[in-house]
UniProtKB/TrEMBL annotation:
GO terms for molecular function: nucleotide binding. It comes from Actinomyces graevenitzii C83. Residues 5-119 form the Gfo/Idh/MocA-like oxidoreductase N-terminal domain. The lineage of its organism: Bacteria, Bacillati, Actinomycetota, Actinomycetes, Actinomycetales. PANTHER family: BILIVERDIN REDUCTASE A (PTHR43377). This is Gfo/Idh/MocA-like oxidoreductase N-terminal domain-containing protein. Residues 128-237 form the GFO/IDH/MocA-like oxidoreductase domain.
């Protein structure tokens, strides 16, 4: 393997263009190939020829690849890259179905390759800081994880609904923050915009470690809301991942003088602290994690096994919504 990893990007759309930019700027990466059968509508290829397929990209000679094509094409592209011995980062979700995801994950495992999934929220500065503080015990016992991911409909999405496109982020980050796999999930979805796929979902459940979880996701809100709230023994940490902000709401420790409230065995409002964080672009951090995993210098990437777990929960959400019953894992 050369001093710099020779990298190719498959898919030059809304996400792929940002992968191209970051691949060019990541130390230790050399962007040598880009491919998209639909061409380069954002004009990001620069001096590189725009190839028409994953096979053409492989023929250039690459060590690593980033797959940013629509979800329905993930399996075909990833399997070709695994067969060619190319370490690969696949945009979320891992594949269009659990069965396809299993085939992809097994292919990379069998080949001894790094297979990563692009859950970029794990690289958000607010969530990185949140997870560090949770690990240090700032909240004590963690009781609940709540996520909100609401925004207008993105016209670029046509192959999946809001569950596989957006809720999959929250499924992954909540399990990562809670440090546990899902135990069960119950969900309801709605179709309010006349499209084939669902555009709203509410889901609730629990993790195997007893932490409760709730997700609110939709494409029908006229503002962008990206919030993760973790409530625990000593208060709550609130991450605004759209802005990369983290705030700590501490339980109050002042004695209550109002008898009616004092009789309630709960908590009171205490000090509120908003942390000053270094805010790097999450996608840049994700590329570095992928690079370090390939070089054997780190293990902070989202593995395909983790991506497969998220896909199982996502399909569980859809199955629960269809049946009206909770799904157990």
């Amino acid at each position: 393997m050369s001093a710099s990893l020779r990298v190719g990007v498959l898919g030059l759309g809304s996400m792929g263009r940002h992968h191209v930019r970051n691949a060019r700027n990541t130390e230790g990466f050399e962007l040598v190939a880009v491919a998209d059968p639909g061409g380069d509508r954002f004009g990001v290829a620069g001096s590189l020829p725009v190839l028409d397929s994953v096979s053409a990209m492989i023929e250039v000679g690459i060590d690593a690849a980033i797959v940013a094509v629509p979800t329905v094409f993930h399996e075909e592209a990833a399997l070709a890259l695994a067969e060619a011995g190319v370490h690969t980062l696949v945009e979320k979700p891992l594949a269009a179905s659990v069965e396809a995801g299993q085939r992809v994950a097994e292919a990379f495992k069998s080949a001894g390759l790094i297979g990563a999934v692009g859950y970029v929220e794990r690289c958000n500065p607010a969530l990185l800081e949140m997870r560090k503080r949770l690990a240090e015990g700032q909240l004590g016992d963690v009781y609940q994880v709540v996520t909100r991911r609401q925004s207008p409909f993105p016209a670029r999405i046509s192959d999946v609904g809001v569950v596989k496109d957006l809720a999959t982020h929250d499924v992954d980050l909540a399990a990562w923050v809670a440090g546990s796999e899902y135990k069960e999930i119950y969900a309801q979805t709605a179709h309010r915009s006349g499209r084939e796929h669902e555009d709203m979902v509410v889901a609730s459940g629990s993790f195997k470690n007893g932490v409760l979880v709730n997700h609110l996701v939709n494409w029908l809100t006229p503002f962008k809301d990206r919030t993760t709230i973790v409530t625990g023994e000593h208060g709550a940490l609130v991450a605004d991942t759209a802005m990369g902000d983290l705030t700590f709401y501490e339980n109050g420790d002042m004695p209550l003088q109002w008898d009616q409230i004092a009789a309630f065995r709960g908590v009171s409002e205490g000090t509120v602290t908003r942390y000053a964080l270094a805010k790097r672009e999450p996608l840049a951090v994700e590329h570095e994690h992928f690079r370090d995993a390939i070089l054997g210098k780190g293990n902070e990437h989202v593995s395909m096994e983790e991506g497969l777990n998220a896909l199982k929960v996502v399909e569980g959400i859809l199955a629960s919504a269809a049946s009206g019953q909770a799904v157990h894992f």
